[in-house]
Write a structure and sequence with these properties.
With 385 residues, the chain is an alpha+beta fold. The protein has two domains: 162 residues, Probable tRNA modification gtpase trme, domain 1 (Gyrase A, domain 2); 121 residues, Beta Barrel (Elongation Factor Tu (Ef-tu), domain 3), CATH 2.40.30.110. Helix content is 18%, strand content 33%. It has a six-stranded mixed sheet with strand order 14-15-16-13-5-17, sandwiched between helices. Strands 18-21-20-19-22-23 form a six-stranded antiparallel beta barrel. Strands 7-10-11-6-12 form a five-stranded antiparallel sheet, with helices on one face. The longest helix is centred in the middle third of the chain and has 11 residues.
Length: 385
């Protein structure tokens, strides 16, 4: 297989070539990302997703010192409407969605009947009988449609014409308020507003995939993507605006998880620090409730926790899970690893047997090139801004 290496200061990526074709969807911001320098893509929810502009380190530095636009249109929506929309939405997640008001969002994982993760979307309550679930990677539209059909819910489930664009960084509020008005300054965390601006229909939410100040614009007209991007880009010229992508350094610093990278169907919320999403006391049933009740009573067998890795800055991202060893015995796996410039240390996520998930424990991470000495630490390194 042909491999190319992209190098930006410390970071190298092992990638294969990607060829654009009609088989994979383009986001409404695709042309804008190409115009402003996207140099690497992945495929996420059957859509091209830019993963690098100037390289991970420079993209990181640009973000923490200015404002960035992220094309995350690949976060496709599952839209649930109809008389049973609330009942089905509740059945799909262990969160108690009755606590979520119209105009509010809620992190609401989808679980299978054993309590394993199907997806970890954010739910937006558009109306009393109208919900969006903003997805991580995975065909959860089919999951929701299958559950609805199997349990005879009276709902309509579709993928709407909705494409998120994130505005990230310390200057994000300045940019958003300059374009959309001062009301943005008062928008609460995980709250959103529906509006039409300059003929562009959208939902603006105060949330995003980093610890930085951030917003998410849910564009409701695919044809307006480049127009929206350019409007924000021009308004941000005095705010150190740049194009970027979800950044692994920022993600790990903040203790944010990535579905399929950090957890999947073999993991449950109790293992990865998401037990707060499970409401076993609510009256309503949900998928996986009995399995999670058993796990809650006996305790999880594994736990996701942080690790600080000794040595020089890591220069290659892991593209598979590396074994975690204690006394030459495998006790878990390393799921993500990166060098943090702000911390001046290598940091990562590991999932290990619960007996070894103790802050201060010494472990060995077995990479393909060498064994790395590390110390177990609690998450996160930084709180959300």
């Amino acid at each position: 297989m042909y491999y190319s290496v992209l190098l930006s200061a410390l970071y190298m990526y092992k990638t294969s070539k990607i060829v654009f074709s009609p088989r994979v969807r383009k986001s409404p911001y695709f042309d804008s990302t190409m115009k402003y320098g996207a140099d690497a893509f992945s495929v996420y929810n059957h859509m091209y997703m830019p993963i690098s502009f100037k390289g991970t380190l420079e993209d990181y530095n640009n973000l923490v010192n200015g404002v960035q636009l992220w094309d995350v249109a690949c976060e496709r929506q599952v839209e649930i409407k109809g008389p049973d929309a609330e009942s089905l939405s509740q059945f799909l997640t262990p969160r108690d969605i009755k606590k979520c008001s119209k105009g509010q969002a809620m992190y609401a994982p989808f679980l299978d009947f054993r309590g394993g993760f199907i997806n970890d979307p954010v739910m937006l309550k558009i109306d009393e009988d109208h919900y969006w679930f903003s997805l991580a990677d995975g065909d959860s539209l089919l999951w929701a449609q299958g559950i609805a059909a199997g349990y005879n819910y009276d709902v309509e489930i579709t993928e709407p014409d909705v494409s998120p664009l994130q505005v990230q960084g310390p200057n994000s509020t300045k940019l958003m308020s300059e374009v959309f008005g001062d009301w943005v300054n008062e928008l609460g965390f995980y709250k959103f507003r529906e509006l039409t601006y300059e003929g562009i229909p959208m939902v603006i939410a105060r949330m995003g995939y980093s610890r930085e100040r951030c917003y998410e614009i849910f564009l409701r007209d695919h044809s307006k993507g480049d127009e929206l991007w350019e409007m924000l880009w021009q308004a941000g010229q005095d705010l150190n605006i740049s194009a970027g992508t979800p950044n692994i350094i920022l993600r790990l610093e903040a203790g944010i998880l990535s579905y399929l990278a950090d957890m999947d169907r073999t993991n449950n919320p109790y293992e990865v620090g998401l037990d707060w999403t499970v409401d076993l006391d609510q009256r309503d049933d949900f998928i996986g409730k009995e399995a999670l009740r058993e796990i809650h009573l006996r305790g999880p067998a594994k736990k996701l926790i942080g690790a600080e890795i000794q040595g020089k800055p890591i220069t290659v991202f892991n593209d598979e899970h590396w074994p975690v060893l204690i006394d030459n015995k495998k006790v878990g796996s390393m799921h993500a690893l990166v060098y943090s410039p702000r911390l001046n240390k290598n940091i990562g996520y590991i999932i290990v047997d619960v007996a070894h998930a103790r802050s201060g424990s010494e472990i060995i991470i077995s990479s393909p090139e060498q064994e790395l000495t590390a110390t177990v630490v609690d998450l996160p390194w930084f709180e959300r801004a």
